[in-house]
Design brief:
The protein is mainly alpha-helical. The chain has helices spanning 3-11, 13-23, 33-55, 62-67, 86-109, 111-114, 117-141, 156-160, 171-190, 197-218, 223-243, and strands spanning 252-258, 263-269. A two-stranded antiparallel sheet has the order 1-2.
């Protein structure tokens, strides 16, 4: 997850809310400062908390490193234990960064979205904040060594480093999926009769899959980490816009949930009488 891109969007949030009020009349979505601002603020708080937990993770001890065994890795991930490629790691950032640019570019290029750019970007910030909160809290609380830790040809310092102990789940894949599927979902909602929908959805599915493959090859994440990251990101990219649709019939609501002993997200279903 790229924090600089995310926080740049947050700086523009008050303006985006202001512009979205006047635009809502012909939009398929409903947003409001009263409802969405507290949600974004709560999600930002969860992201900050998650980043703090990640920062305070412990390195592996030498005893723990020596105790690692590929045979103990989950069977679908075992063959990739030991993967490492610096080139694949660097290459993964190309589609990753491109996915972040796709939402504002599509909002500008598509005539049906153009006059609703502020509102679309509010929803985009929420989508990325949901994904970021899920990732940072999980990566901070769950200890799982990256595949590269099993590569005995790498320096010991790289293998025991605390950054190498947060394989679960794949944040780059999740963020890319969230951004890509958000673009496809919003395009479909603004252009329900467009013949380009199929191609937009195909691109949305392919871009995070490419990032996941490169992160797998780089030794940053196992297959199961990428599968979960892909699912969480795609879910956020579709669910957040859907929950804001004017004709939303899901009766679902998403809010931050925090207490003395827990932090997370609450997905609530309301039964209608």
């Amino acid at each position: 997850m790229n924090s600089k891109s995310f926080y740049t969007l947050l700086i523009a949030l008050p303006f985006l809310f202001q512009t979205s009020w006047a635009q809502e009349k012909t939009s398929p979505y409903k947003t409001s400062f009263k409802t969405d601002a507290p949600i974004v603020a709560g999600l930002v708080g969860l992201n900050v908390l998650g980043l703090s937990v990640i920062k305070n993770k412990d390195e592996l001890t030498l005893a723990e490193l020596n105790a690692l065994n590929k045979e103990d890795v989950f069977f679908i991930d075992r063959s990739t234990a030991g993967n490492f490629s610096d080139k694949a790691d660097k290459d993964s950032y190309i589609p990753f960064y491109a996915s972040f640019a796709a939402a504002p570019i599509m909002a500008f290029l598509n005539k049906n979205q153009r006059s609703h750019t502020g509102q679309v970007m509010v929803l985009f910030v929420e989508t990325m904040a949901v994904t970021g909160a899920a990732f940072t809290l999980t990566a901070g609380l769950v200890d799982r060594s990256r595949p590269l830790v099993y590569n005995t040809n790498l320096p010991t310092a790289d293998r025991i480093d605390k950054d190498a102990q947060r394989s679960f789940f794949a944040g780059h894949t999740a963020a890319t999926a969230a951004a890509s599927f958000f673009v496809a979902k919003v395009f479909q909602d603004f252009n329900p009769d467009s013949k380009a929908k199929l191609y937009v959805w195909a691109a949305a599915a392919a871009v995070p899959a490419t990032v996941g493959y490169l992160r797998l090859k780089a030794g940053k994440h196992f297959l199961s980490d990428n599968i979960l990251g892909y699912a969480i990101g795609a879910g956020a990219g579709i669910l957040v816009p859907q929950l804001h649709k004017k004709n939303n019939q899901t009766n679902l609501s998403l809010t931050p949930a925090m207490g003395f002993n827990y932090q997370g997200l609450s997905l609530r279903y309301q039964f209608k009488h």
